[in-house]
């Protein structure tokens, strides 16, 4: 739905300090482009709806292609729909520095998630063109396809294809929210399953990857800093725990003679909320999905299924937390006379950011007049997929109140521009390596 009353560019420019536009970096241009993309898939709530492989995502990509060409980049599209704009540099035979993010969104998301990463990488290329700077190494701006995964309940689809991580058979069997098969859906935007198979790149072609993304948290806001350097990306590990008791009549079964699965599960949920803090400050555990059976008001719950999302940026401490959670579940179930079944349903390894890239980003922040601040990423990004194979860095932009995946998502233009400057300084500094 097109809502002509919403003007993101104007809102961004209200508080912008024009003195920040220097050395080729233009806040005015960044605001204009954010504003243009915000109109594609604009919702009634002034949010964004651009599902992966939709015509809206395609239109947003086409806008970026036009801007890539304005910046002097040579543009191509791979078999997964990833858009790559290339600046050959002085030594085009060298491995490329890759930077970018995505332009698809959740069903009623904001206008900064993913988009600011693409436009930040592009703004650096445009600034180089406008100032006559030519990098030594080739530089590529990438728009990854379907990062959010709202179409097929997955995500990171484009980056997985580029890294060769796609399970083609599993993807081909998926259906979207309209019941359409993957192959049929992607044909709407000119893609094919066979093309996906050919999207993998040689790792030897790429030196490293860097992504700019909104924080989606409150740490930078609390520190009053425009941006921060990510130390690692937490890998999600999902546990399914089934507490099995005995269903019974809520009125005729004495409190002393019950095997109430929900009481045991409730005790467990409360207990594990205290476990992550005992391990380190980057570990988290969340119960966001429970199933109660038979789920009757006058029936003692006989079975409860609990899903636990466990994350940390370090594999060793994440495993320590997993072990503690399993041990506590077993102890609690036994104390209530309940049986327990456990199953791992999802496991993505954490991705630490190489120390040397963190240090280079810290120096870039200092050179830009910003106090370097390190923080973990609890959410997954394209950098998580690329980082499993290649050196990857991640730079966060401050998020207002930590809100994301919501029309109220907001990053101030001053913060965005300062982050672009850090990215630019970082990209220029690694030309000398």
Structural features, described:
Residues 235-331 form the Peptidase M20 dimerisation domain. Zn(2+) 2 binds at residues 113, 148, 405. With 433 residues, the protein is of the alpha/beta class. The chain has two domains: 8-234 and 350-432, Zn peptidases (Aminopeptidase, 3-Layer(aba) Sandwich); 235-347, 2-Layer Sandwich (Alpha-Beta Plaits), CATH 3.30.70.360. 34% of the residues lie in helices and 21% in strands. The chain has 14 helices and 15 strands. It has helices at residues 8-13, 27-38, 55-70, 115-131, 157-163, 168-172, 182-187, 193-197, 219-223, 261-272, 315-335, 355-367, 382-386, 413-429, and strands at 74-77, 83-87, 96-102, 139-144, 206-214, 227-233, 235-244, 248-249, 284-293, 299-300, 303-312, 339-347, 351-352, 374-377, 392-397. The strands form three sheets. Strands 1, 2, 3, 4, 5, 6, 13, 14 and 15 form a nine-stranded mixed beta sheet that branches. A four-stranded antiparallel beta sheet has the order 9-11-7-12. A hairpin with a 5-residue loop joins strand 1 and strand 2 (83-87). The chain is globular. The relative contact order is 0.16. The mean pLDDT is 95.
């Amino acid at each position: 739905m097109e809502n002509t009353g919403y003007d993101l560019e104007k809102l961004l420019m209200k508080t912008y300090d024009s003195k920040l536009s220097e050395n080729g970096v233009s806040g005015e241009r960044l605001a204009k482009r954010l504003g243009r993309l915000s109109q594609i898939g604009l919702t009634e709530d002034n949010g964004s709806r651009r599902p992966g492989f939709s015509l809206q995502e395609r239109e947003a990509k086409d806008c970026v292609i036009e801007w890539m060409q304005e910046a002097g980049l040579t543009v191509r599209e791979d078999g997964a729909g990833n858009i790559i704009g290339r600046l050959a540099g002085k030594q085009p035979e060298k491995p490329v520095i890759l930077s970018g993010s995505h332009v698809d969104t959740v069903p009623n998301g904001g206008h900064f998630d993913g988009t600011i990463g693409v436009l930040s990488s592009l703004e650096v290329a445009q600034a180089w063109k406008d100032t006559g700077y030519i990098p030594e190494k080739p530089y590529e701006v990438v728009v990854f396809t379907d990062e959010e995964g709202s179409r097929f309940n997955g995500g990171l689809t484009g980056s997985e294809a580029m890294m060769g991580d796609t399970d083609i058979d599993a993807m081909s069997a998926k259906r979207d929210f309209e019941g359409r098969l993957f192959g049929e859906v992607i044909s709407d935007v000119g893609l094919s399953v066979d093309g996906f198979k050919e999207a993998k790149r040689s790792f030897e072609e790429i030196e490293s990857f860097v992504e700019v993304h909104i924080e989606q948290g409150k740490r930078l806001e609390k520190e009053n800093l425009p941006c921060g350097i990510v130390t690692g990306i937490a890998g999600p590990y999902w546990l399914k725990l089934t507490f099995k008791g005995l269903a019974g009549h809520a009125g005729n079964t004495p409190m002393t003679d019950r095997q109430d699965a929900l009481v045991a599960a409730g005790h467990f949920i409360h207990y594990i909320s205290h476990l992550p803090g005992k391990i380190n400050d980057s570990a988290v555990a969340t119960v966001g999905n429970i199933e109660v059976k038979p789920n009757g008001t006058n029936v003692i719950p006989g079975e409860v299924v609990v899903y636990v999302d466990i994350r940390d940026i370090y594999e060793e401490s994440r495993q320590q937390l997993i072990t503690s959670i399993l041990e506590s579940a077993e102890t609690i179930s036994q104390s209530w006379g309940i049986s327990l079944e456990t199953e791992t349903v999802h496991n993505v390894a954490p991705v630490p950011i190489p120390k040397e890239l963190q240090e280079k980003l810290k120096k870039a922040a200092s050179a830009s007049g910003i106090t370097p601040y390190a923080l973990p990423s609890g959410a997954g990004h394209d950098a998580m997929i690329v980082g499993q194979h290649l050196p990857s860095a991640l730079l966060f932009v401050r998020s207002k109140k930590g809100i994301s995946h919501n029309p109220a998502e907001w990053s101030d233009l001053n913060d965005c521009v300062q982050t672009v400057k850090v990215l630019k300084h970082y990209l220029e500094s690694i030309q000398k390596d």
